[in-house]
Amino acid sequence: MLFVFDLDGTLLNSKKEISESNKKAVQKLYLAGHKIVIATARPPRSIDSKIKKIGVSTDNIYYNGALVRCFDGVTFSHFIEKNIFKEVFYYIKENDKSAVISIEDNDTWFSCFNFDFKNFYSVKDAPEIITEAELLQKNPNKILINSYSNLNYLNEKFNNICNIIETDSKTLIQIMNKNASKEKSINEISKKYKISSNDIYCFGDDFNDIEMFKFYKNTVAMGNAISELKTIAKFVTETNDNDGIAKFLVEKGFIA
Prior knowledge:
Layout: E1 2-5, H1 20-31, E2 35-39, H2 44-52, E3 59-62, E4 67-69, E5 75-77, H3 82-95, E6 100-105, E7 108-111, E8 128-129, H4 132-135, E9 142-146, H5 151-158, E10 162-167, E11 172-177, H6 182-193, E12 200-204, H7 210-215, E13 218-221, H8 227-232, E14 235-236, H9 244-251
Parallel strand pairs: 1-2, 1-12, 2-3, 7-8, 12-13, 13-14
Antiparallel strand pairs: 3-4, 4-5, 6-7, 6-9, 9-11, 10-11
Helix pairs in contact: 1-9
GO molecular function, one term: magnesium ion binding
Protein name: HAD family phosphatase
InterPro entries: Cof, HAD-like_sf, HAD-SF_hydro_IIB, HAD_sf
């Protein structure tokens, strides 16, 4: 079987750590021969050290599917084409002067806006500030938008060419290549291992897990998950602060 774990709000507790109970549970899955996939919106630099602490080989999905790095060295990525990025950038800038735009490109965070990033992100390092002209020469893995209030208009204009997700209690809009998503990346990984979709279990908590939950049958929402995810989940477990993953795996007999 293949087990897919979101990180923030799912495998990580509210202190942004993996509990000893959850770590041991994932290790037991791995030792039993199951495949482990980490699926997150985050970039590699911010979570690879936490993934290593699990102590097993994992295939990792970053940027909601815009970048995948498998433990056997296989890597694939989806970038936003430069012309599409420019169109999105100017549309946002012209329609909401308060919006703050930054991008992720090859595991580096860039912006042409000087803003207090700690008001929006729980990270230590600021984005690299470059000129607007330099920014628009990038082919980003992901566009990040804060303080933007016109999501519906953004969807109407770009949903046919981009994957647009609202996360973090609706304070952050993330835009990826149309072909970049957790569910599509999981599908590619499962093909590599020849694992049926019926043998895939997905765990999540936020809006960027909704399409993954719609795509796969065996879905587990955390007790702290948004109501929209709990409604469509096959199972609901305990919260991320109460070892929800470990308890579910024991309850369903995947581990002892």
